[in-house]
């Protein structure tokens, strides 16, 4: 932070943008958006309440005190229900939702288009095609599938980028070509399903709908370690988003290497979306809904990364809770519920975009 050069009396006075608070830690200073900080705190509390409800509600009701005993490692008669069945599934849902929410925020920031979520522009479909192909060839380990999904997501993103590049990258062309590539990759996935054995194809169909059913610690651990390793990159991305939103002329004047910055953010978003897809399948529209809802809650110029991740986790946890109980004893894939909410929202975004263009 510095004063205004050449303005007497302002040299010692720091510049603080409206709505921000300066947080200092030794020689370092950080800007915190007050409304975004409050929103993140409220979302964290709501998410904690949703997690308690998730552990307590099911075929049998578990008292909150007993569920807490299991989480804290104390003796409880509900150890099997909470510790073995519900807790690992909850952890996978939290990680998958947070990864999708953060991925959507990063890619929408880079492309500057609210439609540019990983499941709309083909990244999730690329991850799905490779994962389903691996399943049909007998690869079922959750220690391997997320990384195969990352490879599929990166190949899909590279394909969309190369097809959309015309001496520059136009956001609308990138999204339209991404939608086309997504459709083509769904056909590849269908081809793998027709070539696989019947039982494997049925399992892959459930996975493709986006499901947490049957997810245990073997699915939670690889995803958790991968996201933990990405935390430094996410901390960098939260700061870099502000610069990535600059126009080319302003970024050049300020010495910001915009191309490298956007490439890094996009790569991180692709990896996050692909890891989440590998763990639970393509849970549609979470990466679309969470960033735009977070932006409206915080009223910030840039899409808030932390709030997007919290909202993504909240959507998946509540969606899976409803998917388990709405038609009990039948459990729906969580992707069915998120698609039921997200599809009308996508149509609304497209219609709103056309209306804006027609004015």
Question: How does this model look, in words?
Answer:
The chain has 14 helices and two strands, in the order E-E-H-H-H-H-H-H-H-H-H-H-H-H-H-H. With 359 residues, it is mostly helical. The chain has one domain: ABC transporter involved in vitamin B12 uptake, BtuC (Orthogonal Bundle), CATH 1.10.3470. A two-stranded antiparallel sheet has the order 1-2. Helix 9 (231-244) packs across helix 11 (258-280). The model is unreliable at 1-12 (pLDDT under 50).
Per-chain topology:
Blueprint: E1 20-25, E2 28-33, H1 34-56, H2 64-71, H3 79-111, H4 123-136, H5 145-164, H6 171-195, H7 198-208, H8 217-229, H9 231-244, H10 248-253, H11 258-280, H12 286-298, H13 305-325, H14 334-358
Antiparallel strand pairs: 1-2
Helix pairs in contact: 1-3, 1-13, 3-8, 3-11, 3-12, 3-13, 4-5, 4-6, 4-7, 4-11, 5-6, 5-11, 8-11, 9-11, 12-13, 13-14
